[in-house]
Amino acid sequence: MANALQELVKSRLEQQGWSYGDVARRGGIPRSTVHHLATAGRVTRMPQQATLEGLARGLELPLDTVRRAAAEACGIHLYFEETPGTTADPEVATLIASVQRLSPADLRHVTALVESLLRNTHTTDTDTGTGTDTGTDTGTDADTTRETGTDPATAPD
Hints:
Blueprint: H1 4-16, H2 20-27, H3 31-39, H4 49-59, H5 63-74, H6 90-98, H7 104-128, H8 141-148
């Protein structure tokens, strides 16, 4: 059974009478990449942004259409919550969709990192009023978790 990306690429090739080389030239990506994405039984990781952009150009399809098909082929379901007048951030959508695939231990690490970054951003916003991160944080909870293997949220004081 073909995955969503295979189906998208193959149907577009058939509709337009294009070859892998035609798509590759128009998209500025290697022919072997187009061939692999069109024939691979399973996509194990999300293609890089530049590859998705090139494939979208080569297939003459919207980037979001190609991105969604690639994500579905990887087992990731993207959710875009756009506010009118704004553009969806593909990195945020991929992060949100990927969280479900993390192990419980990895999820705790990501949570600690995000909480640390948010605390640092909030402190920076409050202290300076600029919202600019100076990059001078010298000991985040995520660092503690990574270096000691101890989750700061559960570590004794």
